[in-house]
Amino acid sequence: KQEVTQIPAALSVPEGENLVLNCSFTDSAIYNLQWFRQDPGKGLTSLLLIQSSQREQTSGRLNASLDKSSGRSTLYIAASQPGDSATYLCAVTLYNQGGKLIFGQGTELSVKP
Amino acid sequence: EAQVTQNPRYLITVTGKKLTVTCSQNMNHEYMSWYRQDPGLGLRQIYYSMNVEVTDKGDVPEGYKVSRKEKRNFPLILESPSPNQTSLYFCASSLSGQGWNGYTFGSGTRLTVV
After folding, report:
1. Among A21, A53, B9, B66, which is least packed, fewest CB within 10 Å?
2. Closest chain A residue by Cα to residue B58
């Protein structure tokens, strides 16, 4: 059974720091991996999507990497800002699983001014 | 604007009173799905629909019904809500069932059953 784990569960950093959020999954036979952002009480906003054949994706200050063989993905946030404060979720999609997203529990990020 | 729209955003209801949460997408997506989010349990899939008239159960379908009579709409129906269905609900859509272009989520519906 695929399990997705995110470490750390919570992270607090001063503004301007570069930071890394980690996501690991137990079954490497994934179709793709997606990083989302969730603000308190709000919906999920897609940040980056990495197909299983790709190694990384970049969008602005965000960079996500994927190492399928080791079952790991990282989300790198450069020059963090208070507006980056949110919960970050990673989710994988498996083959032949009805398109189901399997989510990690998330990392709650707080960026202090 | 491309989006998934859920209504209502907030709902408080009483046990046993049937309710429907609507979901509509304007991206001509084939695939739609419902999730619930609970503290400590994360996000879990309730039902999904690969295309019109085709729906199937996810991981936690008990107490829920869905229908997909047209491509853009995928309502979630609670025939007899119970307090354990108090949760934050999300609708999601994707161009295809494998989500090769990723998933778009609605803003969520916070349901309280008393």
Report:
1. A53
2. A100
| Chain B nearest C-alpha distance from A40 (Å) | 11
Q: What angle do CA A45, B63, B12 make, to 5 degrees?
A: 65
Consecutive sets of 10 residues in chain A, 113 residues long: mean pLDDT of each?
Answer: 92 96 93 94 91 94 96 97 97 85 96 96
Chain B hits for A51, Cβ within 8 Å = 100
- CA-nearest residue to B105 within chain A is A44
Identify all chain B residues contacting A45, using CB atoms and an 8 Å cutoff.
105
Angle at A107 between CA A13 and CA A55, to 5 degrees: 100
The answer to whether the Cβ–Cβ distance between A99 and B102 falls below 8 Å is no
Q: At A28, list the tokens.
A: 């490497």
Tens-digit pLDDT profile for residues B14-70: 999 999 999 999 999 999 999 999 998 999 999 999 999 889 999 999 999 999 999
- Please indicate if any CB of chain A lies within 8 Å of the CB of B55: no
